[in-house]
Amino acid sequence: MIRLPSTHAAVTAPLVASSTRFPGIPIGRSLLDGRPFHLSPVLVHDAVLPATNSLALGGLGSGKSTTAKARAHREILHHDHQYVVIDSFGEGASGEWAALTRSLDGRVIDARSFTLNPVSELLPPEVREQLVRSLILAVEPTALTPQATHALQHALNNPKSTALGGLVDALTNPEEGRWPAARLAEWGVGAAIALSRYTDGSLRGLFDGEDAGLPPTDVSIVSFDFSRLDRNSPAIPSLMAAVTCWVEHVWLPQSTAVHRHLVLEEAWQILLSPATSELIQRLLKNSRKASLSLDVVMHTLSDLGEGKARDLARLCEIVHVGRLGPEEAAIVGVLLGLPQWAIDRIPRLGPGQAVWRVGPDYVDIIETILTEEEATLTDTSGRRRKAQQAAGITAGVTVEQEIAPPEPDDQGQDDGDQDDGLSILSGEWDWDMPPNVLDIRHQDAIQAAQEGRCSEAADLAALGERDDIAAHGINSPEAVSWISTRALVADLCGSPSQAAQLRATVARMGNNNADWYGPAPDTSPTSHPEPEQPTPDPDDNPTPASLRRLWPAAAVILALSLGIAFVWAHPGGDVTKAQQAEHTQQARQTQESKAEAPPPYKGEAGASLSIDGVSASVTAYWSEDEKRVIVSVSAPYDTVAQYLRIDGGGKTATSERGEGQAVLVERPEIELPVSDPRADVTVRVAIGGATWKEGSRAESREIRLSPVTGIASDAKSGEELG
């Protein structure tokens, strides 16, 4: 994967989450925009996601294993996928995948009782050789020289080699072959010594029987439980070597599922073992051809060393990173090519929250959501709760309450204080998502400006404004809030005049309190805050149509008021006809002046339009001094726009997606002088869609924008644009 420059990644990566959708099982919700997050990697087009392998990282209690188990549960139930799990950690008398495996009618195999004859005639010859080679490498990594390999192959063809003991005899007392027996015996000494560990040494009983003892291949999930073995036991590498070899040569060829998954819990043990690392790397590289996804779960990449960590990161297209320390987060971020904003969030993630990277471009922060059943099946904190109860400590809720659906608070937010820290969802997956759970885009832009990265801050604000205009409309609070952010960025970057113009635009739009995303840092020289302005009532900003309906009534009321005042001033009723005529004439003039009063001035206009299959937005802002107007065109992040152009008043601005560029970051804009601030402005907007090629003519439309009504319309047909 080619890593984007840090500035480009920081600009583009946070915005993908606002609109990108993936097919598949529900996983959770985005903490950037609140939308539901779905993903089944095998269902994503291979142009977007070439491989389906995944890597889950995170510290203790981060929720990485819970997310892996929830994904497996849903893929099996929804899509009939098949799983093999190497379960290296557990609680109580079984591994942590045992409850889930049994609930799906799977098979849990205790590694302590697992026996296998690696040279059984039930296995194909190539499987027998690979199994034996793996067992030798597990205990003696340097034993298999080219000469020893030849001696082993010769011994495997000996009729005595129907069990591991017979194979050792064939190595130490070989029959004549292409090479003399004495030389074959000399070459086979190292392999024979290694295999003797399984026939006469500490590993006796695992692989020296006559029975092949192969696990079933037709169940939904098989979990090999290594949790009750000593973590330092030499049997673990050997057993893992046998299991991974069985996966490659028996399970994959015999499985009939549409897609298969191999889950490696505590994967560092497997990836660092010479007996298994080569095999796992081979499975990773051939996973697409084998219709296999390797789901690797481990604490951190630094356990592997730089070389193996880079190889693993390169072969995994899906990565989710839970809470890690700042130093480890920085290492992981560099290896995975994560943007800086995501790296900064990793140490502050809560349980069940993770930074997800899907493919080369998509980055989001996802909170896993569980059903009640899944919360029970994936619970791994029973011992901790018992310890707390024994010490008289309560976590504020009982065990039953921890796995029950969260009650909404007054704002409709979930309490979120579950056992694993993961949100629990009851019932169906059609939940109502909040409009915005946590929008950190504004703070990212402001922080960039505070750190002196003014160009990046301006790009972040412009991209955020563009997306929110496309999603919510040009006059929405979400879009207006970006103008306030741009003003603050301008202040921090030393452009007070531009900041004043932007704030004036917000004031004209009636959104003085547009900082809905949270408090911004105080940049004023005084520490005394100004009194908060009252929020205007919606009726305080009437539309032009409503004003036209109110003017006649207002004129009549004014005339009546003048008449009443006159009668009050002359109670005797001694009024001349000339005085009556004068008052009538004044009332008529007042009514005429009210009727002829110009409508209110908005000073901005915009609308959405569609050209060449691309949904875009055109906006215009008139300056506070009413001497110029800035017109721009933009397209949402997830469109296929290749080319944008805007022409007007003899000026032209363009933006073209370059080779290898993920998105049109720049939006073209032109600044035009105006002599009459109330006159409409007409521009031509051209957009090249998915099929546009450099040098070809792009489709275009002429758009008329009114600073008085704020309406944009087609200049030829007069059709008002939405």
TrEMBL record:
Residues 407-420 have a biased composition (Acidic residues). SUPFAM superfamilies: P-loop containing nucleoside triphosphate hydrolases. Residues 377-428, 511-546, 577-607 are annotated as: Disordered. Residues 577-592 have a biased composition (Polar residues). It comes from Streptomyces salyersiae. The lineage of its organism: Bacteria, Bacillati, Actinomycetota, Actinomycetes, Kitasatosporales. This is ATP/GTP-binding protein. InterPro entries: P-loop_NTPase. Gene3D superfamilies: 1.10.8.730, P-loop containing nucleotide triphosphate hydrolases (3.40.50.300). It comes from the Bacteria.
